[in-house]
Amino acid sequence: MQTPSPYLKSLKVLHFALLVGQLLFAAIVAFLLFVKGAKSTGLSDYPNEILIASIAVGVILFFASNAVFRKRIEPLRESAMSVDEKLERYRAASIVRWAMLEFPTLLSIILLFLSGNNQLLIVVVLMILLFISVRPQVQKISEQLNISPAEIEEQPAR
User: Fold this and answer.
1) Comparing C-alpha atoms, which of 140, 139, 54 is closest to residue 97?
2) What is the widest separation between alpha-carbon atoms in the chain?
3) What are the C-alpha distances in Å from 72 to residues 15, 92, 116?
């Protein structure tokens, strides 16, 4: 089995760290609500509105993150810049995308804690799955940047 390049490994570590942060925050809130029996605040008076707002933010930011990512990546496909520069810009676009996908998850977790609306767990799980679906992979990066997988494998970590 081939070991990932230092560049890809560092990108995967960053994605994984952001994912673990979301999972830990969700686990802490779930523990407080379901095991310790923490009580919600006045937001529990508006369960449907909070759920709809959470879903709306998630959907909007999912599509916005994809649009922003594509807009930043498409010019790189046919660009004459070096592979190193393309990969640096790819990393920056990925970080923006991940932040835009992480926000609705964190917002839903906070709203879950404040409202006690268990239906928000569904939104949290779906947003985490969407976040996992955009993890960095050599083949995806290669196709998106129009460079060979070998060129990615040769890149050092940053």
Assistant:
1) 140
2) 58
3) 18, 9, 38
pTM over 0.85: yes
What is residue 156's predicted lDDT score, i.e. its pLDDT? 67
Contact 113, 38 (CB under 8 A): yes
The dihedral region occupied by 37, where left means phi > 0, alpha psi between -120 and 50, and beta the remainder, is: left
Closest by Cα among 98, 75, 77 to 11? 98
Q: Is the pLDDT of residue 105 over 90?
A: yes
Long-range contacts of 11-17 (CB under 8 A, 24+ apart): 11/91, 11/94, 11/136, 12/135, 12/136, 14/95, 14/98, 15/94, 15/98, 15/134, 15/135, 15/136
The pLDDT of residue 45: 67
- What confidence score (pLDDT) does residue 149 get? 85
Place of tokens 């940053």: 158
